[in-house]
Amino acid sequence: MTKKWTNWARNQSSNPHNIFEPKTEAEISDIVCLGVARRLKIRPIGSGHSFSSIGLTEGFLVSMESMNRIISIDRDRLRVTVGAGITISDLNIELHKIGFALPNLGDIDTQSLAGAIATGTHGTGIKYNSISSAIVGIRIVTGDGSVMDISESKTLIF
Description:
Layout: E1 5-6, E2 13-14, E3 18-20, H1 25-37, E4 42-45, E5 60-63, E6 70-74, E7 79-82, H2 88-97, H3 113-118, E8 137-141, E9 147-151
Parallel strand pairs: 3-5, 4-5
Antiparallel strand pairs: 1-2, 6-7, 8-9
């Protein structure tokens, strides 16, 4: 089942084998296992706001748009755990409600947070880091479908 995917600027497009929009971590794991079994590349995609070819694949395209919620808030440690598909705009709205804010923003707030991280999105000024510098941990699905948490205290070793 081939379906065409095009980014928001319409300067990048591909015909992935399948486009998935998982709603749970278990669904992502199943998609990864299926893709590996079929020897297809698996490409996660956010909101498609990159001008680059980062989202192109002929394998499985996995949209993270449904993974778009705040999972937890730790006010004491000033940390928020979110799904990869949450947009910068939606995250900012929720952060504002609790008196939090991202330290730096790019130009487009309709990007997914994971997409902004993957593309090195940054704001203006030499004093500001990219959005990825605010990450203290990340949860990933590995090539065998297992889930791994990576943080300051748990490093990824291959």
